[in-house]
Amino acid sequence: MELIGAAVLIISVVVLSFEKRPMSEAMLRFIALVTAAAIVGRLIFASIPNVQPATALVLLVAACVGPVTGAIVGMLVVVLTSLFLGSGPFVLFQIIAYSVISLFCILPGMQTRWILTAYGLAAGFFMDGSAIWVF
């Protein structure tokens, strides 16, 4: 029960920090388009293990726009795809996993192509359902 409370607290902090930022209409449209592409990618490749185009898109948004925006895109992807793939208490922890993936983009050098590629491969592997326990 404490884990669920901690997950809800972390999600609330990320959402509140996103809501405090000034946001233009163009940025909201960009977030909506990337979220839609990630949802379609996750639904298409849901049956193939360790292939996570949604993780790659969340990682790219976090690296290019910011980690909070990447975490919000990850939250939207998980919540909206859970409508099709099934939901449960694991959805909270998938949101936390996408938030952790996004937060690592704060590190210096994450905008380097090779480091971002290696991190994306590792994050896509660990976001698989069998390896979710790592996060």
Molecular structure report:
This protein is mostly helical and 135 residues long. 73% of the residues lie in helices and 0% in strands. It contains six helices and no strands. The chain has helices at residues 2-20, 25-44, 53-64, 67-85, 90-103, 113-126. It is globular. Residues 130-135 have low confidence and may be disordered.
Question: Which labels suit this protein?
Answer:
135 residues, mainly alpha, 6 helices, 0% strand, disordered C terminus
Largest sheet: none
Reading the helices and strands in chain order gives HHHHHH
The structural class is mainly alpha
Count of individual helical segments: 6
- 3D shape: globular
Helix-residue proportion: over 70%
Low-confidence residue ranges: 130-135
Could you tell me how far the N terminus lies from the C terminus, measured between alpha carbons in angstroms?
18 Å
**Radius of gyration, taken over Cα atoms and rounded to an integer in Å:** 14 Å
Tally of DSSP β-strands: 0
Which band does the percent of strand residues land in? under 5%
Whole-number mean pLDDT? 84
